[in-house]
Amino acid sequence: MKKYFIALLAIFSLGQVAFIPFASAQNPRVTIPDFADLVERASPAVVNIRTTEKVVVQQAQGGIPGIPEDQAEFFRRFFGVPIPGIPNGPKPAQPNLGKPQEADRGVGSGFIIESNGLILTNAHVVEGATTIYVTLTDKREFKAKLLGMDKRTDVAVVKIEARDLPKLPLGDSSRVRVGEWVLAIGSPFGLENTVTAGIVSAKSRDTGDYLPFIQTDVAVNPGNSGGPLLNTAGQVIGINSQIFSRSGGYMGISFAIPIDEAMRVADQLRTSGKISRGRIGVALSEMTKEVAESLGLGKPRGAYVRNVEPGGPAAAGGIEAGDVILSFNGKDISKSTDLPRVVGETKPGTSVPVQVWRKGGTRDLTVTVTDTESGQVVNKKPDAPATSGNSVNTLGVVVGELSDGKKKDLNIKGGVEVTGLGDGPLAKAGIRPGDVIIRVADADITSVKQFEALVKGLDANKAVPVFIRRADSTLVFPVRPK
User: Fold this and answer.
1) Are 266 and 120 in contact (CB under 8 A)?
2) What does pLDDT average to over the chain?
3) Is 225 one of the annotated active-site residues of the chain?
4) Does the annotation mark 423 as catalytic?
């Protein structure tokens, strides 16, 4: 009891709050940071953002001036006021579109990154706004100009006409450590200058095409969006952007845009007002353990290419559907979500080395990156399934020859079309009539005869990858012959 009292006394007597374990004197003391000084320095650079939009209000004609509509019926009946809609009476009320009026749209947060009034926030905070109002902690309010926003990364840059404003120092989000203390400042539910604290729960959390989010357990709610995520040095390491919630409120998981990623976008927005992002024209799927093993990769890695845009940069560089991209421009690709970020950061017009895995080995290619705005994949409806075919084979399918028209539509050189299904491994794996088998293991399929001979020679004790073309996607089904 005496030790317990001494421990409590030590906690409340320290200038910095500390946790002293009671169980054992040998355990190290863990210090909990005191955020008060940090908040006092950082808060003046955090702003409240209020947006409005123009709306048209419908006004009804035919009412009784000066009388509320819920009381109008009484006056119509008992004081002889004509009732709209009856014979010889006025016509029923018709909607009348009034003049556009400014209405509140939403509330968010932001923070000043330059003393001349440059502010960073989320794109979803200012998207669709007619007017953007920025309120400082000293209650001064400014109309802000939107310099640019990028919905893909949810970053926006706005500017107010002011000088000598406090600004926040920027940190290095690549050095963030899981478990370190962080805090958020913002306007949840419109409550300005609200501070919440927690720790970094995870790094590089994939929830979007271009962003490896920082996951925290900091309490973030609607209105916190666009506010800073700070480390214990008072540096911005992220922009609070999203929450995981089943109720609309905080549930213990929040996500922040890493400041390094945000500033790459912000620098382009402030200079040109738009983002120039690289592209190569491929559609991707995640690698699974089963597919990786069947392809000879050993473990899941790389970005699996399920479709290549005809005439696009990847096709021109020699990338094919069914390839696995292992590295791009010297950077290893661990998973499919890594590739869009690496490609997006590459300057359009740059020729880069690409390493792919194909037919049991690596191949080195060169691809010239283009801009995201140039070109798009065009999906064409495939021909109707062919009707000719043979008996069910050990893979459990009936196949027929592929028409030249379908080869052209699917942008493939060969293959056989699935015309029927039996009780076999491919049917159980999810293959459908109309799918086109283009490769089995490392062998490209050219005809029904060649396919049937290949299937007969497969080892029943070894999984084999079967490459399927379905619409604009190339899928891999690792199966064992029956």
Assistant:
1) yes
2) 80
3) yes
4) no
